[in-house]
Amino acid sequence: MAHTPTRRGGGSPFPPIAEYGFLSDCETNCLVAPSGNVEWMCVPRPDAPSVFGAVLDRSAGGFRFGPDRTFIPAGRRYLPGTNVLETTWQTPTGWLIVTDCLVVGRWHRTHRRSKTHRRTPGDWDADHVLLRLARCEHGDVDLSLVCEPNFDYGRSPESWCYEGDDYSTGVISHAGPDADPSAGVSLRLRTDLRLGFDGRRALARTTLREGDTAFVALTWRAEDPLLPADYRHACAAVESTTEFWRQWLSRGRFPDHPWRRHLQRSALALKGLTYAPTGALLAAATTSLPETPHGERNWDYRYSWIRDSTFALWGLYTLGLDHEADDFFSFIADVAEHADDIQVMYRVGGEPRIDEEILGHLSGYDGATPVRVGNAAAEQRQHDVWGVILDSVYLHTRSRDYLSERLWTVLVRLVEAAATHWREPDRGMWEVRGKPQHFTASKMLCWVALDRGRQLAQMRGDYTTAERWRGIAQEIHADVLANGVDHRGVFTQYYGSTALDASVLLMPLLGFLPPTDDRVKATVLAVADELTVDGLVLRYRTDETDDGAEGEEGAFLICSFWLVSALVEIGEVTRARQLCERLLSLASPLDLYAEEIDPADGRHLGNFPQAFTHLALINAVMYVIGAEGGDSHPQPSYAG
Ligand SMILES: OC[C@H]1O[C@H](O[C@H]2O[C@H](CO)[C@@H](O)[C@H](O)[C@H]2O)[C@H](O)[C@@H](O)[C@@H]1O
């Protein structure tokens, strides 16, 4: 039997997107299907080719550790406060618990520096080990291990061989393109079971009786692999990983509220999407999970968008988790220090080139093609990019009263770029692939760049620059009010159109106008009433927008959460709370979210888990709790 489970109950062989568990060590991440099969993992970096790619094609590799012949778990949960996943299995003969994590241990590079880490080393570091523990709780259970990598997005099946004289350790290697050994990947698998090999499949099977345990660990770390020697060491690795996540979460401020669990899961998902070596932040863990079932709106999100990342920092800041911002701002300084302008996204190592390519050999998730890797939007002009950085730096500088000279030099260039280009059309924050337009939200974010730049210049005592930037900000503000509002007094998608666009919900959240302004109220209510399907918000109507793609898309979750925050701003707290409750009820079984949701059936669509959704959830929940008099306060980014 193939290890990647095929069809359960007559439906699609692919699990629903929302049923994947997400593991991370803040460097690598993976998705675990409910069957216990790891169906997505890219090593050594999250933007590298996959070694387990079954989420995009059932033959592209997976790694299952679970009971033989039982594929539907009795229950799954994260150990509270962590990204450690626990799956409970009931089989006809017994009960089994499997614990999965990507191991985080104490900083261990004491004798030699890391080749990839550019940020200041902390106390913790990824061990580069995917660890899986099994323990039979009652009766007896036949345990099965099938580890079947398929390198290079399923294009390069290699074969396992033993390492050493016993059955405990196997190695499988892929030379990489150009047969360049430095571009290759080797996987090493260690277990206390007896491994056998069948080509690219590493197999083990045993019967566990009550109290029996087993472990398997997979590493891609070439030098000094940190594989546990036995089950006791494996347990210690799970404990250190648990301690890492809980210590990190303890730095945050979470209200004592029934929605706290959603805030904490969102914070953990955002932290899990960081790439610690450089400070980058992924938009999502995956590529090409479809925004339309079986459709072509399939994009690669395994990169660091400036917009997604800075908004994520806003979400974390709202919870008092602001250390990630330091590393991200250093990442910005790295990529922009010697460039004239900034791109909209970078690879996680800071590399600017992200060529888009179609992988025609993959069937796609549930038949959705094409599968894309790389992202052509990297070359677009999107004029929100300057404003989102300036807003984020302003937010963090205000609370710390410190801004590095290195970063300020970069920021000055970014404000000047906004001042130079704000009159030009762009592709907007939704990165449409159609004709450039004068997007209202892009102009508004150019105003943010000048406004926050002005305030930062003032903080530094540079009043001359501050005055000049104030003048340009006023000019942009007036231009948006003159051209971005329709006859109803509603802000529109772009100058001269009457189409609605959810991006303008940011107006009250970024302080472009006060929430009491009639145009703001009219816009928020127009989006709520006219740009929704069954109450959930579309980013725009695809039939009104030249976005360069065919087909419908689902409701955008970031926009739906923005609407919650905006409704609170304009005083519609009851409506905001109802929408927020509804959105929280649509969370995945593990409280994770994809990018979109099908309003008809609540099915999650698009890449997963998606930073955009989780960051907006945090702000929306804090807005509602704050408005209802909880112990938190609404936190618009500009508020003093
Ligand atoms: O709508 C077409 C575009 O869709 C993707 O962009 C979306 O995801 C980005 C990452 O989260 C986000 O920053 C952007 O606002 C979203 O619209 C895709 O990456 C683009 O290539 C595509 O043109």
UniProtKB/TrEMBL annotation:
<dbReference type="GO" id="GO:0005993">
    <property type="term" value="P:trehalose catabolic process"/>
</dbReference>
<dbReference type="Pfam" id="PF00723">
    <property type="entry name" value="Glyco_hydro_15"/>
</dbReference>
<comment type="pathway">
    <text>Glycan degradation; trehalose degradation; D-glucose from alpha,alpha-trehalose: step 1/1.</text>
</comment>
<feature type="domain" description="Trehalase-like N-terminal">
    <location>
        <begin position="14"/>
        <end position="124"/>
    </location>
</feature>
<feature type="domain" description="GH15-like">
    <location>
        <begin position="261"/>
        <end position="621"/>
    </location>
</feature>
<dbReference type="GO" id="GO:0004555">
    <property type="term" value="F:alpha,alpha-trehalase activity"/>
</dbReference>
<keyword id="KW-0326">Glycosidase</keyword>
<dbReference type="Pfam" id="PF19291">
    <property type="entry name" value="TREH_N"/>
</dbReference>
<protein>
    <recommendedName>
        <fullName>Trehalase</fullName>
        <ecNumber>3.2.1.28</ecNumber>
    </recommendedName>
</protein>
<dbReference type="InterPro" id="IPR012341">
    <property type="entry name" value="6hp_glycosidase-like_sf"/>
</dbReference>
<comment type="similarity">
    <text>Belongs to the glycosyl hydrolase 15 family.</text>
</comment>
<dbReference type="InterPro" id="IPR008928">
    <property type="entry name" value="6-hairpin_glycosidase_sf"/>
</dbReference>
<dbReference type="InterPro" id="IPR011613">
    <property type="entry name" value="GH15-like"/>
</dbReference>
<keyword id="KW-0378">Hydrolase</keyword>
<dbReference type="InterPro" id="IPR045582">
    <property type="entry name" value="Trehalase-like_N"/>
</dbReference>
<keyword id="KW-0119">Carbohydrate metabolism</keyword>
